Amino acid sequence: MADNNKFIVSHAPFWHDGSKISTRNYNMAFAAFPAILLGIIYYGMSAVGVISLAISSAIIWELAFCRIAKRPITIGDGNAAIIGLLFGMLLPATAPWWLVIIGTFVAIIIGKQIYGGIGGNAFNPVVVAMAILMISWKDIFDFNEALINYDFDFAMVYPLAALKHFGVSAVDSFSMGDLLMGKQSGGIGATFGIGLIVGGIYLIIRGIIRWEIAFSFLFGVFLTALIFNMTDSARYAGPVIHLFTGYTLIGAFFLATEDSSSPVNFIPMLIYGAGAGLMTVLIRNIGVYVDGVIFALLIMNLVNPLLDKIKPKAIGKVA
Amino acid sequence: MIKRSFIGLLKPRLEYGSIEDTPSLKQIPTPKEITILSNCPFDKKNLLLKKKATVKTGQKLLLYKESDEYVISSVTGQVSSISSYTGDFGRSYTAIAIEVADDEEIDDEFKATAGGSKDATIETVKNYLAFVPGNSPVKLFSDKSKPVNTIVVCCADSDLLITTNQYVVKSDIDAIKNGISVLKTITGVNDIIMVASQGQMHELSATGEKVKQVNDTYPSALPHLIMKDILGKEVPAGKNSEDIGVCFISAEAVASIGNAFNTGQIPVTKILTLVKKDGSKSLVSAKLGTPASEIFKAFNITLNENDRIIFGGPMTGSSVYSEDHPVQPDTDAIIVQDKEDIPVISDYPCTNCGDCIRVCPANIQINLLVRFLESGQYEEAADQYDLHSCIECGLCSYVCVSGMPIFQYIRSAKYELGMANTAEATNG
Q: Does some domain include residue B19?
């Protein structure tokens, strides 16, 4: 042998398509940007503050956990940043600093790391954090109360709360165009409908989120709201209000589609999405909570492992 | 390497390599020493072949007492060493090194026994043509427990980049025709199907045999998918196509059999596709047993530390640890990968993104399967998550966002289960 080069000896395949977890997460942040931008335009520096604190504290919690648990440092994959970002988008711009930090603690540590980190979580970490915070400090999530000091050229009302407390007539003034343009009260990054839809479609085209889940979720919300509306249009608002208010759009494109807590087979994805949509409207219309997206997703996360048992038949499988 | 497209919603489209016209073939001169690998595990005690024995080109070399395993010497010369070689999964091979003499002599045993194509018998083919270029599965023809009723001649190449079989079809169609008539005579099977890519259809339909077209994207030309899509027969999980009476043979092997009876000499020259670091392809003809380094020398390829040499295609081949690894009857390609181009395998867990599910041609629930495989629960993986349905295309690892070696997990699980079953069978 002329020289003794050492070669890499590994297993097939010797090609990879170059996809990476970090690319997915940074694309997700990119897709969320338009929605956040409008929040920042409306709420100014306090929105910047909440979002920045959410992202940075989420990263720090992840770093701290990895250090303490002596695991490899995983903050580079962008997953912690995305959890922080999405969490910040759901919060009102007036959320106090301690709430943000507790929220990201719950999301990163309780929502994700105790299950073994990325890919192991049974529930969407952001949704877990929101659920716990909404139950613990429900006044802060009363958007009308929280954002009372902001005065814009549109009715600064949280549509779902108005709907719940004052009935359908209270939300008559909201037109679909206004809702899509974010002319409503709500979470920093959850109100700008067009921004969320554009971001979501970008993620679908890039193959980062699964379109089946997003569309079936929206379809579930639409159909259930329509049925309610048709039975009694004086008590129940139409599907447009349900589709473009609260956390519906951010839920459809950014929360329901979280990888590890949602199914991957075609039929399960449809059931999962539609089920979450159905639960959302049920909670909004006959439940006690103003918005149902968070709890609906938690419940569907719970049935996800069962749903994923519905699988196509593998090649050559006998019986 | 084909990267993920911007529109990730679409499945990756991996097109098979194709050749236009007849590309030039570079002959590699016979090296000073060649090495022949036999599938037989090395067993010093029962060795028949002795060191210093002189061999002729095309001579059949029986290796062990009480075994009919043999290899065919591709050169004339003297056996310089017989040793053990360890391959993937710790498999043991017998490596026979032969020092090449100056003058070539052709062995005439085959000519004397075989006669012409008309007199071909299954015994002659089994006794002399199991080690021809193209890896002919001649043993299967005489296996009484699994009668063959259909023979599929693969004229398309099964892995990406490779154009070896396509070249043989272009350059030696007469030998293939002759080979097919020999196969018909010896097996009595009349149902012979040629599987070809779109570009080959015209040429092959002229042969008068039954020709079926295979899709031009990977993994359509893998045997299990040919069975399912072209023959309409699903191979039961964990079984091979031979188990249900279909035998696959490469066009090159058919051509080798045809040529053997035409010329009275056992073919010893392998055609292979060489893929250089920059991705350019060349067709090479080399004697069986030629070390890869001789081919690299002929093409001025320099290898550096941490590069990779792959025998076979980019999806299903295997990498070797020595530049001197010899060309074998099934070496359809040698790929050289620069260390910069080697994708990183990570120990990240599965994030459940579902890309593998979309791409899997066998409909396997890979996201769940891989969790069982990672924790070594092979039995559960086989019982509940269709481990044995895997057709080994490697696409799951190719698309894995986490960079997990899923394909390797599957192969080692199958291997471990196979070992456990064998142990159970022997221990009662």
A: no
